[in-house]
């Protein structure tokens, strides 16, 4: 769904999944955790399918209002994933991927 809306984001999801897999393996995590982390990397930007094309594909700097729309994509993704029987495997990655270790949202979307 994401790649159909935005080819760049689709490729980004694949790259994040592969990089996440490599990091998890390098840190000696179990095969199950490695796969769970890779899945989270692949689904983390799922909510971008709910961002209007005019905002998602804008080349110039986003206005404050447009940035507020972009910042909704983690919750949109979590809402889309909710109710799926395997949602818990990737829910944290989807909902919290812009959160910093101290619990604040990071600036870049």
What is this structure, in a nutshell?
The protein has helices at residues 2-5, 7-26, 31-43, 53-56, 64-70, 73-81, 91-96. By secondary structure, the protein is mainly alpha-helical. The longest helix is centred in the first third of the chain and has 20 residues, at 7-26.
Structural write-up:
The chain has 109 residues and is mostly helical. The chain has 7 helices and no strands. The longest helix has 20 residues, at 7-26. The chain starts with a helix and ends in a 13-residue tail after the last helix.
What order do the helices and strands follow? HHHHHHH
Q: Decide which structural class fits the backbone.
A: mainly alpha
Helix content: 55-70%
Mean pLDDT: 89
Q: What does the largest sheet look like?
A: none
List keywords for this structure.
single chain; about 110 residues; mainly alpha; about 60% helix; globular
SSE blueprint and pairings:
Blueprint: H1 2-5, H2 7-26, H3 31-43, H4 53-56, H5 64-70, H6 73-81, H7 91-96
Helix pairs in contact: 2-3
